[in-house]
Design goal:
heterodimer, A: 184 residues, mainly alpha, globular, B: alpha+beta, twelve-stranded mixed β-sheet, 6 helices
Chain lengths: 184, 294
């Protein structure tokens, strides 16, 4: 995490700015954390962990604290992969959406659920690209990795999502996505 | 033209995240956790084990909650009467946690953080809250570090003797709660915290096993809110006291693996002597307590 040069360094134990940040931007931070962690409960835990991590380094935080908290969220979410991969891989079944539309909303919900089967870095990249709408270069800066890593993670993540949703439209290679039975 | 997967993903993420509000005060919880961690980090720093602070925190953390009775108590009155499942075992552990006993708790630990192993022993008297901790030195140093913690009301006095550096110091902290148990991989290790963790986690019953000469029940966490790692627990099949605990969790630079073996010793004069601070060897230099880091 990079501090902003020239910005004032905060005092060690005064977290008033964090109080204000959570009061004004708590919903947005929770949204990001939830998308990264996969559920609201896990998202709250992730946000709490990120805030605690920022408190520990508060004396070194310069500039915009929200950016710092966001970066910490992403770093924690990606780092957790190191532990997760020790476990046997568990494949969850993602229920395909119903063929009718209410359909389209259900499909998108199932698509987000399917993200739970991606590696954390792939998931983080997709959240940065398609939720935060960041460019590849900006996403790379947040994650502290190369643009190439962002590209490959996004590509693999999307490919995996296509695999998972292949049965929904009967064509894994097709870039369009429709609920079962819907006309493309 | 149908939308692409990327379009649907963007829309899905927006829909999924819409209208979320924190349901609890995450900042207050983070602040409390930070405060507890600071207390432990001070002790860990004082013990000269800054590099293993997180791991040491866990060792110190387990000093508080060990409860239950050596002889069968309410939770163990009819252990074979029902078929065991994870929920039943969790309930019995929770019940055992309700009771304090007067045994002295002894925990042998082996902690490997990013490839470096540290062994330690910890004694705790649940009656007074006194704790004594002895570990091998930092890294490969064979010189021991002794740490004695005395808690009287809200005043915690930590005394550390570092044989490797031939120095010692004392750190006195006024705490804002009477018994601030630090957090380990599963969070707060107070009896209440442990019961909460048992209730919040998803446990699977691995089976019954013979371990360290005791019949035990082996549980494994398959999902635990707030903890992302592997966690296994063996409890005595009769008393539901902890026998062994192992965990693997991520650190900033790799992973930490813990193995802890638990004993419950009778509160005899000899056992209590293990809790007494042995004093400062002659020639050791007193230095100021290090500031907490991190």
């Amino acid at each position: 995490l990079v501090a902003t040069e020239g910005a004032p360094v905060r005092g060690g134990k005064d977290f008033d700015e964090l109080d204000e940040l959570v009061a004004t931007r708590g919903n947005a931070l929770l949204a990001t954390a939830t998308l990264l962690a996969g559920s609201r409960t896990a998202g709250e835990d992730l946000l709490q962990a990120a805030l605690e991590r920022v408190m520990r380094r508060w004396g070194h935080v310069r500039g915009d604290p929200e950016g710092y908290v966001r970066r910490t969220l992403y770093h924690l979410a990606v780092d957790q992969w190191r532990v997760r991969r020790r476990r046997p891989e568990v494949h969850l079944t993602v229920e395909p959406p119903a063929p009718d539309e209410a359909g389209r909303v259900q499909l998108r919900h199932a698509l987000v659920q399917a993200m739970g089967q991606l590696q954390p870095r792939q998931r983080a990249v997709l959240v940065l690209r398609y939720w935060e709408q960041l460019s590849e270069a900006e996403a790379a800066e947040v994650l502290g990795c190369s643009v190439g890593t962002v590209k490959s993670s996004a590509s693999r993540g999307l490919a995996r999502l296509r695999e998972l949703t292949a049965d929904w439209n009967g064509d894994a290679g097709d870039r369009t996505l429709t609920p079962n039975g819907a006309t493309r | 033209m149908s939308p692409t997967l990327e379009d649907e993903l963007s829309a899905g993420l927006r829909e999924h995240a819409a209208g979320l509000h924190p349901s609890r005060d995450v900042l207050a919880a983070a602040r409390a956790r930070h405060r507890r961690r600071t207390v432990v980090t001070r002790a860990a720093s004082a013990a000269g084990t800054v590099g293993l602070a997180g791991a040491v925190a866990t060792v110190v953390a387990i000093s508080g909650p060990v409860t239950g009775t050596p002889s069968p108590g309410p939770a163990t009155s009819a252990p074979a009467a029902v078929e065991l499942d994870a929920a039943t075992v969790s309930a019995r552990i929770s019940q055992a946690l309700l009771a304090w006993d007067d045994s002295v708790h002894h925990v042998r630990s082996r902690i490997t953080v990013d490839g470096k192993t540290q062994r330690s022993e910890l004694w705790e008297d649940p009656v007074t809250g006194d704790t004594r901790y002895r570990s091998t030195g930092k890294g490969s140093s064979p010189q021991p570090v002794e740490m004695a913690v005395r808690l009287r009301g809200t005043v915690q006095t930590t005394t550390v003797v570092d044989a490797g550096r031939r120095v010692w110091w004392t750190d006195v902290q006024e705490l804002d709660v009477v018994r601030p148990l630090p957090e380990g991989p599963l969070g707060d290790f107070s009896p209440d915290g442990l019961r909460g963790a048992l209730a919040a986690g998803t446990w699977e019953l691995v089976g019954t096993e013979r371990l360290a000469g005791r019949d035990t029940v082996h549980l494994r966490v398959t999902e635990q809110s707030g903890f992302d790692g592997e966690y296994d627990l063996w409890v005595d099949a009769a008393s539901y006291q902890f026998v062994r605990r192992t965990s693997v969790s991520a650190t900033d630079t790799g992973s930490a693996e813990h193995v802890e073996d638990w004993e419950y010793l009778p509160r005899t004069e000899q056992t209590l002597s293990e809790l007494r601070f042995v004093g400062v060897p002659k020639g050791f230099k007193k230095i100021p307590a290090p500031e907490a880091k991190g």
